[in-house]
Design brief:
600 residues; mainly beta; six-stranded mixed beta sheet; 4 helices; 38% strand; transmembrane helix; Quinoprotein_ADH-like_sf; Pyrrolo-quinoline quinone repeat-containing protein; transmembrane
Length: 600
């Protein structure tokens, strides 16, 4: 008897420890589901990759050129290994407390009803609606640092969080901007208007090709052995330009797409010789054609695949595509959104043989279609952002949506109140995962009237509003007020602020640049802009650890800004309205302008 009692006493501490472990696990699961504690892929360290700027084909220097800056070995040692298995990256979710019901409809769609609205959605495989969609493989992204294997800016704002419009570190000494070169581009006339140079969002792509890939592409022979950073830039005149970033000279023949590109393309982040681009107009000087989303083989400079923009399964017939795609390199999957209101999930089935110098794809496309009770308006012009398997985008009708891109099922919706063209940005912190977004003054507008641009921070896992800051803007037909630009999410020495530029806050020509405290939404500083800006500001880091920012405006100026104060350190004229966004690689910035040039 005494021996039995003694054994129970030995087990008692173990039982207590086990019960405490179960309790801690249950609390952690609850916090994950409520969005207060996101499951971590890895321990976060400060982001060290920084940004570069570009102009309508102009190049601007922020210091001394220093290609191929190596990553410090100490940084590498501090970063734990992140899993590249999408199954490990999947985040579980449940609907927020406002969720009411989910119902299967008779046509294969489902309807989810929330507290203040509902969404009806369809999944289409081979253009056929399926009510029982089971993903053939798991799809999830890693952290923003893991997005690209290729050095440079390979998609709009550089990664799946849309927070890296620059790469490398600049050697900033005199805090001056200088035009290094310009390259002429053309214009088109279409849809009753004239489109010169490069426009919104129009961020140049910057690719530092590996030597083995560079040598199999049709790059000019004199550049085959150069440590080349290539500027790849589709613009209004219907051409895709390829330039040596150092000199501004064409690095290979341009591609004639024939029709305008307004948005930002995408270079394959695996470093594969593939380029992806949408199309902004289907008219060029009286000639009309079909809207297409295109994929190009950069070995032979030829189109190897296209998707029709005027998709027969879409609810909206307008087939333009300004959104900049993302590619999941773990699963060879392309994600893209169209102004026709569809989300495309495409398994590329890529085959790349470096030794043979060949590349091919055999795409298999799944589509997501929806209707929101907030508005019948369809169309997605901003670029999607992704956290793990959750994709975030907004539409022309005022619906912000969190979509489980793995299951193709909406998780939550949020009523933004107006068209939202600014891309949503993601920040992962110890307190949770959050989104920053702002709308424009478009659908609510009446001639001569004013309405608020709503700047918001949302909980990424639940869709709950964390804070909102409003800025009164003038309504103007065609040239919209509010936020057309994507914000700068502060990192490193400015990690406590987020910076937005808001157009037409005082009149139809001016704007406001504002830094908000990330935790509270309160203004840290605010600056009145003499000229409004649709161009997304770009943050980049100097070698001494200080963050700088570039901002371009409609009067044709590029400003070098201190993001801690909002004050100009320098400014230069790049010749014409800048709607496009710059890209930065170390000390060099490139941007396109209405002056029918791009500048570095």
């Amino acid at each position: 008897m005494s021996r039995r009692r003694k054994n129970v006493n030995k087990l008692l501490p173990a039982l207590v420890v086990a019960l405490l472990a179960i309790l801690v696990a249950m609390i952690a699961i609850y916090l994950v589901y409520t969005g207060k504690l996101p499951p971590k892929v890895s321990n976060k360290t400060p982001q060290t990759s920084t940004q570069t700027t570009a102009n309508a084909t102009s190049s601007v220097s922020t210091g001394t050129v220093a290609e191929n800056t190596p990553t410090d070995d100490t940084d590498k040692e501090q970063k734990p290994t992140e899993s590249t298995n999408p199954s490990d990256l999947l985040i579980s979710w449940k609907n927020p407390s406002s969720f009411i019901s989910k119902a299967a409809m008779g046509d294969g769609s489902f309807k989810k009803t929330f507290k203040d609205g509902n969404i009806r959605y369809w999944r289409l495989v081979s253009n056929q609606v399926t009510s029982g969609y089971n993903p053939p493989y798991n799809l999830a992204f890693g952290s923003s640092e893991m997005y690209s294997e290729l050095e440079g800016v390979t998609t709009f704002r550089g990664n799946n969080y849309r927070t890296a419009p620059s790469w490398g570190k600049a050697d900033v000494k005199e805090k001056k901007l200088e035009i290094v070169w310009t390259h002429d581009i053309g214009a088109v006339s279409g849809v009753g208007s004239y489109w010169p140079g490069a426009g919104w969002t129009g961020q140049p792509l910057l690719a530092h090709w590996s030597p083995d890939v560079r040598k199999i592409m049709n790059i000019n022979n004199n550049l085959k052995d150069k440590d080349l950073v290539e500027v790849i830039y589709p613009v209004f005149d219907g051409h895709i330009y390829f330039l040596d970033m150092e000199t501004g000279k064409e690095s290979r023949p341009r591609i004639n797409l024939r029709f305008t590109v307004k948005g930002t393309g995408m270079v394959d982040p695996r470093g594969y010789p593939l380029f992806y681009t949408g199309q902004g107009l289907n008219e060029n000087d009286g000639r009309k054609g079909a809207f297409k989303y295109r994929i190009y083989d950069l070995i032979h400079q030829k189109e190897i695949f296209s998707m029709p923009g005027n998709d027969p399964v879409a609810f909206r017939p307008w087939g333009a595509n300004d959104s900049s795609a993302l590619l999941n390199r773990y699963t060879d999957t392309l994600l893209d959104c169209g102004e026709n209101g569809l989300v495309y999930k495409t398994k590329l089935n890529t085959k790349f043989d470096k030794k043979a110098g060949t590349i091919s794809i055999n795409p298999s496309i799944t589509k997501y279609r929806y209707k929101s009770s907030y508005s019948p308006e369809q169309g997605i012009e901003n670029s999607p952002a992704v956290y793990r398997n959750l994709m975030y985008f907004a539409d022309n009708g005022g619906t912000i949506q969190c979509l489980d891109i793995n299951k193709l099922e909406p998780v939550w919706i949020f009523k933004s109140g107006d068209d939202t063209d600014s891309s949503i940005t993601i920040e992962e912190t110890d307190e949770g995962v959050f989104l920053y977004t702002a709308n424009e003054v478009d659908k609510r507008g009446k001639s001569g009237a004013r309405a608020n641009c709503n700047v918001r921070k949302l909980n990424a896992l639940t869709g709950e509003l964390v804070w909102q800051k409003d800025y009164s803007c003038v309504y103007q037909n065609y040239i919209n007020g509010g936020a057309l630009a994507t914000p700068v999410i502060g990192k490193n020495d400015i990690s406590d602020i987020v910076i937005f530029n808001v157009a037409l806050t005082g009149s139809t020509s001016d704007g406001t640049l504002v830094a908000l405290d990330k935790k509270t939404g309160k203004e840290v500083w605010k600056r009145q802009l003499d000229a409004y800006s649709w161009s997304s500001p770009v943050d980049f880091m100097s070698k001494d650890g200080k963050t700088y920012m570039l901002l371009c405006d409609f009067k044709g100026y590029m400003h070098l800004v201190d993001p801690k104060t909002g004050e100009d350190l320098d400014k230069i004229s790049v010749g014409g309205n800048v709607e496009a966004s710059p890209s930065v690689y170390n000390d060099m910035a490139v941007v396109g302008t209405y002056a029918k040039k791009y500048t570095e």
